[in-house]
Amino acid sequence: MIIPVLHILNSKGSAVITVRPDEAVTAIAHLLTHNRIGAVPVVDGTGHVVGLVSERSIVGALARHGAEIDRLCASDIMTHDVPTARRSEDILSVARKMTRSHSRHVPVLDDAGHLVGLVSIGDIVKLRLEQAELMAREMQSYIMQEGYGAVAPRPFAS
Question: How big is the CA angle at 86 (ends 128 and 45), to the nearest 5 degrees?
Fold first, then answer.
């Protein structure tokens, strides 16, 4: 079953917290913590995604720069080569991109390249779980309606 990214955006919403390239890393860390999110897209003045700052980016910067991290900004630590998706793209295709790039967040762009949402690996797992539960209920309902669950075993013929 092909399910587009739009399905996830419709259920979770398309509001995305973003930062500018010159945003201080310490401010971004507070933003992530306060909003209980794992990453923020870095957006330039024209609304285009130029990178992504994740918890992983911040931990890496802390390991490399130590106490000097408070002098860094988003553009210093962001991932530049961020995989993106379109609203019509299949979520399994997006999951493959995440796996190949070792990323847990994928910005969703419109046809003009502007940010319209963000999909996380958690969003995909949640949707896949919902699909599996629905399929299990449908199969159970089908089996019970057809009477397969109440069929008595036949004796063996001799």
Answer: 125
Domain-embedded: residue 153:
no
The angle subtended at Cα 3 by Cα 8 and Cα 81, nearest 5°, is 65
- Collapsing DSSP to helix, strand or coil, 138 comes out as helix
The predicted-structure confidence for 5-15, as pLDDT tens digits, reads as follows: 888 998 888 78
Judge whether 88 lies within some domain.
Answer: yes
Each residue of 66-123: pLDDT tens digit? 989 999 999 999 999 999 999 999 999 999 999 999 999 999 999 888 899 999 999 9
How many domains does the chain contain in total? 1
CB count, 10 Å around CB of 148? 9
Which CATH number characterizes residue 119's domain?
3.10.580.10
Residue among 89, 108, 81 nearest 18 (CA): 108
Q: Chain-centre distance of CA 90, in angstroms?
A: 13
